[in-house]
Write a structure and sequence with these properties.
heterodimer, A: mainly alpha, B: mainly alpha, two-stranded antiparallel sheet, globular
């Protein structure tokens, strides 16, 4: 439901820009007039471009490695808190993952 | 008695608003400059952390639009304060006007500027994501595209905060115009209370009233209520001032 409102808002933003370009006589100087309309219009373009970003760019292998590193790090922290350092075998295991 | 033209508050406020938008349109390019500057600063990352053990080291760099928001909120405070400067206030009296109409037109202008800031800040944040995404080819990003909910919430929250900060700047400016001594006492009291251990918690609770709110609807209501109260107080306080002070 919120997504529906957000899409409506996005469309409303485009409508607002069109309205702003028509009512831009409210701004005194021509440069300011163009800037006020062009600036949000250019920024608005980045939203669909973000959606078009290919999923392939997300490096799955590296992502896995980072998740494992985070897990290893939390195990390591827990071990230190409990006064037990991880074994060399475990540490070697992490290095092999990386 | 009959007049050729019957001015009413609504038309006077609208005419003043249009005039102020024309004559003070410089506030919009100034916002853009502030945002572009903060955007450039954000490109290097807004924070980092690192950890290491043996031959393994992890370095994490954070990118966020936080800096853009902070710069914009400072801009909102300055704009609010700036509009209370004598030269700008006195231009209102070229029109048939009173204090109420003058305040209302300035408030509408501040709300327009806040809305504009509320639209541009999240959009610039998304643009930052896009730039970071294409600049760092090996960067790992799970959610590149913002969800529509995120867009909607960012817009409402940023506009709300910008309106709140510009209101704060306007209130501070009006108090300063009214009595420099009173303004100094209030500012000093606020800073003093913030740094005194006994009262700092109270000040933090006041801040939490806004920034710890998880519901956007409640946050919007809180902001609207605060704006109404503060602006009403300022109008009440300065309504009986002589025409030019």
């Amino acid at each position: 439901m919120i997504s529906f409102f957000a899409i409506l808002l996005f469309l409303g933003g485009i409508w607002g820009l069109i309205w702003l370009s028509r009512e831009s006589y409210l701004f005194r100087r021509r440069l300011i007039r163009y800037l006020v309309v062009a600036y949000p219009a250019l920024l608005l373009l980045s939203v669909p471009l973000l959606y078009l970003a290919p999923e392939a760019k997300i490096d799955i292998d590296r992502q896995e490695a980072v998740i494992q590193m985070q897990e290893s790090s939390s195990i390591f922290k827990q071990a230190i808190q409990q006064g037990q350092l991880p074994s060399d075998k475990e540490i070697l295991g992490w290095r092999q993952v990386l | 008695m009959m007049y050729l033209t019957e001015p009413n508050l609504k038309s006077v406020v609208w005419k003043q608003y249009v005039c102020k938008l024309k004559s003070l349109s410089g506030i919009f390019p100034s916002l853009m400059v502030v945002q572009v500057l903060s955007f450039a600063l954000s490109l290097g990352g807004t924070g980092s952390s690192g950890t290491g053990y043996g031959g393994v080291s992890i370095h994490v760099r954070y990118f966020s639009g936080e800096l853009i928001s902070q710069f914009t909120f400072w801009w909102a405070i300055i704009v609010g304060f700036w509009l209370t400067i004598k030269n700008y206030r006195e231009t209102d009296f070229f029109f048939v006007t009173n204090r109420l109409a003058s305040h209302l037109s300035t408030i509408v202008l501040l709300l327009t500027a806040s809305l504009y800031a509320g639209i541009t800040v999240p959009l610039l944040g998304f643009f930052l994501r896009l730039v970071v995404y294409w600049r760092n080819m090996n960067v790992i990003l799970n959610d590149v595209a913002p969800s529509p909910d995120e867009l909607l919430m960012s817009l409402l929250v940023t506009a709300g905060y910008a309106a709140l900060f510009s209101c704060l700047g306007y209130a501070a400016g009006m108090l300063f115009q009214l009595s420099e001594v009173m303004f100094s006492i209030l500012l000093g009291t606020y800073i003093g209370l913030s740094f005194t251990p006994a009262t700092s918690e109270f000040i933090q609770n006041v801040h939490r009233f806004y920034n710890a709110e998880s519901s956007v609807l409640l946050f919007t209501m809180k902001v609207a209520l605060t704006l109404c109260l503060v602006y009403a107080f300022i109008i009440f306080l300065t309504n009986r001032l002589e025409v030019r002070r």
